[in-house]
Design brief:
Strand order of the largest sheet of chain A: 1-7-6-5-4-2-3
Shape of chain A: globular
Largest sheet of chain A: 7 strands, mixed
Structural class of chain A: alpha/beta
Distance between the termini of chain A: 15 Å
CATH architecture of the largest domain in chain A: 3-Layer(aba) Sandwich
CATH class of the largest domain in chain A: Alpha Beta
Strand content of chain A: 15-25%
Number of helices of chain A: 13
Radius of gyration of chain A: 21 Å
Helix content of chain A: 40-55%
Order of helices and strands of chain A: HHEHEHHEHEHEHEEHHHEEHEEH
Number of strands of chain A: 11
Number of domains of chain A: 2
Oligomer: homotetramer
């Protein structure tokens, strides 16, 4: 009954097998090995982007920050939404990697409203005294478990384009969004106006690998230097590569995401009976308000997830908001047990 | 016949087994899992440092840079030797993590001469116009394959102490030096005046894990924040921990280092017959000058290592310097074959 | 009819005279001259702070940024209001000087509401993933021409104190606020809970000098190093000092501020007749909405100030907001002429 | 008898007069005033560079650092000589402004030897692991009081050009070198292969103004943003401009430099009689070794300058090295008195 995060589950056997396979003999370091070349090409193929510059790093934090650093000068601002992970959960890593760029919070939700974004960009920059206009950073799926439709995405990237600004896509849950939309990775990225995307693996079954994909390879060399300078160029790179190899084989990435989304749907069906759901969850993350006593009962029974409020003290009937995230490995039985505990 | 680097070999089976064992069920993220707590304690025990703050990161670059960043202010300078890895091979990562501290190169060799270090420190700092005196960074074993005896170490750290400066130890090849000296990790670190040490695993058989050990835990919180800000806090931290668990079990770290050192000794014995050895190699790295034609012949036969000069063009008899590094996995047969190829 | 900014007027003759007096013979550089020592002591006396560390710099941007950099770590956030100059008008200088700290915008006005500030601080920080809690930055007078009463100030600094956070006061218009409140500099700073204050001179009649005053001298050395590193330590420091000397003599700072405030009051009296005033201006800055046609007429007649909207195009009767700032040197006749032009 | 630095003397009356003249009425801020436009054009004319982007800042530190920051990426290295001011005397300001670039010290003297520079550049960079090749920074006149002939300059910039690297010229004592060579500012800069030059005023009679001149205006906007972000854009810019206006009028800059150089020559003639001169001083800086007792006697008589050694303790006859700098305002009588005191 572990719904705290999709970074808490194990990796599927294919990943361990790939690591074992890669663990043969000597290999050149720093990503110059043949396996890395092969997997890089597979990623280009998956994204239908033969010219793309593709890199693997081990954390989502740095995947996003390095991507942004290639597009944001130190005197620029990055446009994001208030709950954006880069704003809320990275201990100033974006500021660090960009050399001190600012983050401008646009609107009040987890999704950009195009008109609000347009106003925000239009009202910023303009003189040497202001932070200059920099990249627009979109999270898909968002930090609140929502997704942009392809039309939504195009509307947002279109606003960036009006101002000549590049678009970054934080894809920590890229796969979950992609299978929920039933679209291709290319459609959800460059075909919708994205310049650089993070194709997340860590939250979707890998030990720790994210692919950063620059659709225009102009930033390739700069990325490589910034990655090294950040201490993120792995000498034994093949162990990152092997994980991605497993992830791509037979579209494991999509299968894992479909599984996680389905688990979440199963959980959702139950939660709806006893609580109030926020929004319209379509990926593997649900925000719901349940009576305090239900959380308390569940935790006592061994459940674990984030509650935005004290569950021990207060009116037992009062609703307390919680976040539920399912990873691919959650068993149906666990979900059912949780629902049983809370009487759903 | 791969002598390019000790970051090119596979990992021993124990590491894969530990990863497999760790891959069970859900675990809290970011190093708050029980396994990490356990392994952290094991490291404290190994270093006989019950108060130490201990952290795992995935690359040596960041292990050293984060350690330095906790001791060097942006207006400070770090004292190191000219061939120090932090100076030569990190694409300005130390400058990045320290916020712009300088590196002052001391002397002309890979080992600090205490009197030269004293003069360098004494001649630096002093006014608001200068970079201020910051940490002394020692590499053990050095980038040239040499080691400091414990007396040597104490002499160097003693100079730092005279000026009230902290001492950092870059231990990418910590284990190789430690077993060569036949001393304990504690003796090679805090008992010899080291404030923060990197206990390297990546070059000694792990996929990518280094332990950073602060003997005075005062910098613990700062390290944690800087690690997160650098994108180096792994959400699925247990996969770093598991590697270190395997490394510590039955002193695998020492066994691997002893093996690598022994391979190097075997290689050395042969190289001496046909080339000129630099210094007195005691760990798993040898610098030797061989006639150009021998390198050419070896490469043709499939050998791979770094040559400081063109091996295709030039007088075939002219000695060309090369670096040979043995990792634990090199087979004696490969070494012997190499020696046979070069006629040693 | 120049109401664009109080950084647009000339300096009073006393400043030129002081420069001339200081321009005698040789003087040690970098602030080690006797005049600087003397003026530093005068500032300590003025602020009734015998232990204070006092420094002169040439711009308000750097005065604030250096002060903040001494209190905000790169992984911290600085709390300020949305229109704060450090957020809006410094091209990421605070991020630069702090090494990448964040700015958290609190509330929706130019003045901190204590309860809103308490909620903002309480809801931030808390884990290694977040920006950590850093200094609270207050502007007095605010960027909207408002002032905090001493009680207001104490309420805000009290909230910072609850969390153990330091307080910075941006005093670009320190003198204008101080004379408007009729309080002493000490009362408006350390007696109200301020840790470091900028005593602005540039907007109040100097060529370019601001004093940074640390009431706790613990940060003194760090400030000196950061100032030098920022390129803000003047070799011919006496020419900064001389300006401050003139500023302090016979309380010129207060006299200039009183004059500027009075000019503003005169202007206000007229503006009220034809436009709508924002808030309750008590220093030398007024925000007012006037019919578009009046702005147009005034600009045609040679007036100059900032209008937040197009004055050439649109309904002539529609109110357009504008900012009016009076400096000490504006002549009553100019104000009267402006009022006459707009028919007030 | 003040020979400590050319930043210790007063400014000539023309500078005060220009400040007084500029102190009339209101002027737009931040360098958008008509006087700044005029003086900027005068600088373009002086340098015969109609396209140049020209900026004024108040300190030499920042003039050099901003210029370098426009050409050096954070992962680059700047080539300079060991005694370069940017290395020795700026408390890591170059590292700060470049976002963490390295400084590579070339050779062992204050002047680049072209062949040594070529070897240094050729031996650096090359892989993602190294600091990348960045700008070459030349100081003219050097920190040791030497100058490059135009042929020397061209030889050095030619090496940079071989590698496609930009050239920065630190001209803290630009004027002194220029008049000593009897060449034009254009000849000493872009005609000799310099990309960005600092035309120093502060050490040659101004209160604090340096012009930064980009011969290729491509970096103009970046410079403006970096200047603002560094807190170096003066709101009351006219007071910087006025100083430069005086400096340019009737070639005051050349006259002051000629005067200072002549004073130095007068001093040199005497010093030679009692001490040993280093090199062949041609500008206003002399390094000389005098018996300890002479320094002691001079200091007792009120002289002030830098001695590289204790003058109170030690063998009275032992030579102690000292630096003598003459500014334009030193009177012949003072020089003569000093020489008399030391018996020259």
């Amino acid at each position: 009954m572990f719904f705290a995060s999709d970074n808490s589950g194990p990796v599927p056997p294919q990943v361990l097998e790939a690591l074992t396979r890669a663990n043969e003999g000597h290999a050149k370091g720093y990503g110059t090995d043949p396996l890395t070349e092969e997997v890089t090409q597979q990623l280009r193929d998956l994204f239908e982007a033969p010219e793309a510059a593709v890199y693997l790093v081990a954390t989502g934090t740095v995947a996003n920050c390095l991507a942004l650093a290639c597009y944001a000068q130190p005197f620029d601002t990055v446009y994001c939404t208030p709950p954006a992970h880069i704003e809320e959960d990275e201990c100033n890593a974006p500021e660090f990697y960009t050399g001190g760029a600012k983050l401008t919070l646009v609107g009040e939700s987890d999704r950009f409203e195009p008109s609000v974004l347009r106003r925000a960009i239009g009202g910023s920059g303009g003189s040497v005294h202001n932070a200059q206009r920099g990249p627009v950073s979109i999270t898909q799926a968002t930090e609140k478990g929502n997704i942009y439709s392809l039309d939504d995405l195009r509307a947002v990237t279109g606003v960036a384009r009006e101002f000549g600004l590049p678009v970054h896509l934080d894809g920590a849950r890229f796969a979950n969004a992609c299978v929920a939309l039933g679209c291709t990775p290319a459609e959800m990225t460059w075909k919708s106006g994205v310049d650089v995307a993070v194709f997340g693996g860590t939250k979707n079954g890998l030990m720790g690998v994210e692919a950063v994909i620059f659709f225009d390879p102009e930033k390739a060399r700069e990325f490589e230097l910034r990655r090294k300078r950040g201490g993120h160029l792995f000498s034994k790179h093949r162990y990152l590569t092997a994980q991605m190899q497993a992830y791509l084989a037979d579209d494991l990435w999509a299968e894992l995401a479909r599984t996680a989304n389905a688990k979440s749907t199963r959980l959702l069906a139950g939660l709806q009976k006893v609580g109030k759901i926020e929004g319209d969850p379509r990926v593997n993350m649900i925000f719901a308000r349940l009576p305090r006593k239900l959380h308390a009962r569940a935790f006592e029974a061994g459940a674990y997830y984030y509650c935005m409020g004290d569950i021990a003290e207060g009116d037992p009937e009062e609703p307390v908001k919680a976040r539920f995230v399912c990873d691919w490995s959650i068993e149906d039985a666990e979900i059912d047990r949780y629902l049983e505990v809370i009487g759903a």
